Hints:
This protein has 10 helices and no strands. Mean pLDDT is about 85; it is low at about 5-15. The longest helix is centred in the N-terminal third of the chain and has 40 residues, at about 25-65. The protein is globular, with a radius of gyration of 19 Å. It is mainly alpha-helical.
Amino acid sequence: MIRNxxxxxxxxxxxxxxxxRRIEPAHLRRALRLGWDDFLxxxxxxxxxxxxxxxxxxLVAVVTVGDRLLPLFFPLVAGLSILGPLVxxxxxxxxxxxxxxxxxxxxxFLDPLQPARRHGVLAIGAxxxxxxxxxxxxxxxLYEATxxxxxxxxxxxxxxxxxxxxxxxxxxxxxxxAGALIAALTLALTVVSVPMAVDKPVSGVAAVRxxxxxxxxxxxxxxxxxxIVAALLVAGTIPLFIGLAVVLPVLGYATWHxxxxxxxx
Length: 265
């Protein structure tokens, strides 16, 4: 059961923030079911959009196969999830229009970039791009401080050093810890903010503040949602990122419905 009166908006804000709700794990399952329903209803004209993201992943694989850039392969692939909420803005719009009983199709996918709403979406997008490059900088710094000292050569040498040396295991542990922190930060900043910016004209600051408030009101449930998203994204990369063509639209639709459960529209 959603509790409606928890964490009302701050009265001292120059831009009024909506009230956020406390939700339960059952709402996550409901959001995923609704997201799947949206995907089944709209898969014909949106499936190829989901394929774009796997193609980007394959491009990353091609670009980073080299002695110098190879250490950035995994950070680049993992870091694409930071930009995922921005890519999903079109799916939020389709789900919004379908939920409101409006016409929903490919022609509306770029509606979030219309003048009335694009400022919030673009502001959050700029924030995510900065976060993406910050993650790459962190990943490269960790590599240079650990495995980079061994100067492994080629793919085989890199993998051997990564899994058979203390420096390699240190990189794995520190890299995954840093990645988990970045992922948690991305979730807190965007789980509500991007859908909110798609839903109505709002500043990026107000949308991000609302997202943080929604996450702090539901820390356990949001942690579970983050783990679900991570698991589905990993599953979607097997094999060759093809599964993301289904996972990304479903998660996009589901996140829209989760936003409606967390925030009073």
